[in-house]
Design a protein that fits this description.
This protein is α/β, with parallel strands linked by helices. It has one domain: Glutaconate Coenzyme A-transferase (3-Layer(aba) Sandwich). The chain has 6 helices and 15 strands. The protein has a 10-stranded mixed sheet. Strands 9-8-11 form a 3-stranded mixed sheet, with no helix packed on it. A two-stranded antiparallel ribbon has the order 1-2. The longest helix has 11 residues, at 44-54.
Length: 263
């Protein structure tokens, strides 16, 4: 059976489960000019909490290395969300305390983690069978680049040493939906949301949603639809108006997400 498109999955399988936070924190983002610009947006912690609130209840979710791993610390226990780690763990529950710390209990990023009641351990073969079999509802991955086609580059930079591609290629093809959680710009200040990716692709046309410190975005094939913006951020802050478009007026955070479930 053919895998549904990322756009279809965004509308039919997983939709935003909350109204984006209206609590603003100050963050700095280097613009392309090389000078520092102070914007109103989400810090890394606020960004992780924002994503955690958006995950539909009772989902099985894989969190990629980097920023996405922070999401586990902000999940509502009542939502019954199970975090899957491709090294063989289902039921990750954030960082351990001193009392629960175990040197042998880690996630795929080699970080010590805690587990929730009902957690299960298994080998990598079964873990990847779960991914390839479509049993992971949502993969939230980091990214180096995402383009308007929903293509993702997050595994290789030509000329740099590569230790391995990890499980990202399996996740973008096996998970029922893929969200990318990343900073809006790279270290030089260049946007990571592009018309076309220039780095080697992890997957083509796989991304349903993108969240950065500046807001939520959806690749449409021709541009990025601005679903909602972080507090204090305007359309002119996110990038080229030809690439970032909306037909909504951002009167408040609630109004901005009224159409987040549309394909």
């Amino acid at each position: 059976m053919a895998r549904p498109s990322a756009t279809a999955l965004a509308g039919e399988t997983l939709t935003l489960a909350h109204t984006p936070s209206r609590e603003a924190v100050a963050v700095t983002r280097p613009p392309s000019s090389g000078t520092q610009a102070l914007l109103r947006g989400w810090s890394d912690a606020a960004l992780a909490a924002e994503v955690a609130r958006a995950i539909p209840p009772r989902s099985v979710v894989n969190l990629g290395i980097g920023l996405p791993t922070q999401v586990a610390q902000y999940l509502d226990p009542a939502a019954s969300i199970m975090i899957h780690s491709e090294n063989g763990l289902l039921g990750v529950e954030g960082r351990p305390t001193e009392a629960t710390l175990s040197p042998t209990r880690i996630n795929a990023g080699k970080e010590s983690v805690d587990v929730r009641p009902g957690a299960a351990y298994f080998d990598s073969a079964l873990s990847f069978a779960m991914i390839r079999g479509g049993h992971v509802n949502l993969a939230i991955l980091g990214g180096m680049q995402v383009d308007v086609q929903g293509s993702l580059a997050n595994w290789s930079v030509p000329g740099r040493k590569l230790t391995g591609m990890g499980g990202a290629m399996d996740l973008v093809t096996g998970a029922r939906a893929v969200w990318v959680m990343m900073r809006h710009a790279d270290r030089s200040g260049a946007s990571k949301l592009l018309e076309r990716c220039t780095l080697p692709l992890t997957g083509a046309g796989v991304v349903a949603r993108i969240i950065t410190e500046l807001g939520w975005f959806r690749p449409t094939g021709t541009h990025f639809e601005v679903i909602s913006l972080a507090p204090g951020v305007t359309l002119s802050d996110v990038g080229d108006p030809a690439l970032f478009r909306t037909d909504r007026v951002f009167e408040n955070a609630s109004r901005a997400t009224q159409r987040a479930d549309e394909p």
